[in-house]
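Practice record 12: protein with zinc ion.
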Amino acid sequence: MENFIFQNPTKLIFGKGMIAQLAKEIPAGKRVMVTFGGGSVKKNGVYDQVKEALKGFDVTEFWGIEANPKIETLRKAIQLGKEKKVDFLLAVGGGSVLDGTKLISAGLMYEGDAWDLVLKGSYRHTVPLGAVLTLPATGSEMNSGAVISRLETAEKYPFYSNFPVFSVLDPTVTFSLPVYQVACGIADTFVHVMEQYMTTPGQSRLMDRWAEGIFHSLIEIAPEIIERQDNYDKMADFMLCATMGLNGFIALGVKQDWATHMIGHELTALHGLTHGATLAIVLPGLLRTLKEKKRAKLLQYGERIWGITEGSEEDRIEEAIARTEAFFKSLGLPTRLGEAQIGEETIREIERRFTERKVAFGEDQDVTAAVARQVLENCK
Ligand code: NZQ
Ligand code: ZN
């Protein structure tokens, strides 16, 4: 096990009706800017609950943080926040609203253009931020990460600021999710766990078992929550899987990969494909490409997650990858580039970008532009 320092300061407020607790969490007298996406919260009653809970606060609303939040939109929010002298942010929505608001929280404390901060990669001088999460997937509600896009240049990069001070997770607000977003959320959570698990075995028994617990939970609940989205207990489990999948708890002292995500971000940047859908395509291709390197862990994963114990090692590895791809397919997601109408030109462009950026992803920094190309070839 590697050395680590762990601290996760986000207060989780979980359960039915918990949005009403909001006012207790925001210090009195704060000038609050509440940020939203495109309006789903108006249809499912979340907006009314938030408004009711914030009675008595000085509130400014900012609407229109889109999926894969764009710097072009976030600059407007930062400008408005500066004008209103905002000193507390409340993000109400999915990962995109939360991520966008993390950049706003940094941008409010920065004199220059907020895209500088994205290129810098991190900025910890921020206005405090709370969240009401409406979509289980990203873990953004309990981590310090964000992913910000730039429309003008079709770029998408990770950015790190501070953790939300608190996050309210009421599973009933997820009942209105479109099935496609549930599918993408399951795939995203599954791949977050993979990025922290599928490296080398024997680093930590505990991290392995926790990660495997999340895989098993997702596989167990997926058929039902894809069928219908209003089962409280199942959606509650899904929500907690997503949070625990990317809040640092399963990453203690172990190596992490993240190459699938970095390749997936390019597919979103170039084609607008939903984040979880990119991962369902890239992960199987990545595992096929790196199966020698990840051999021992793939065998453990095959046996413990999919019960694969028969056949040669080669057969068991192939079967483990095939079962993973079939799982994504069972969610109704595409698992090959062709199914998403993505062709050779995109592969060339990603290789070009990665060569220019001199990337080296993966747990051993050996997923270079050339390896990423092989991964994409194996996603055809
Ligand atoms: O904008 P509104 O109208 O709210 O609609 C949203 C949006 O269209 C809708 N939605 C959200 N909650 C809903 C709902 N519709 C009905 N009922 C509800 N309860 O769903 C659509 C997608 O929302 P979005 O926030 O984009 O989805 P998600 O939570 O999957 O976030 C994706 C973004 O997060 C980044 C991704 O790259 C992507 O940009 N990620 C952030 C991470 C992090 N912060 O740690 C890690 C992840 O790996 C990921 O990269
Ligand atoms: Zn993700």
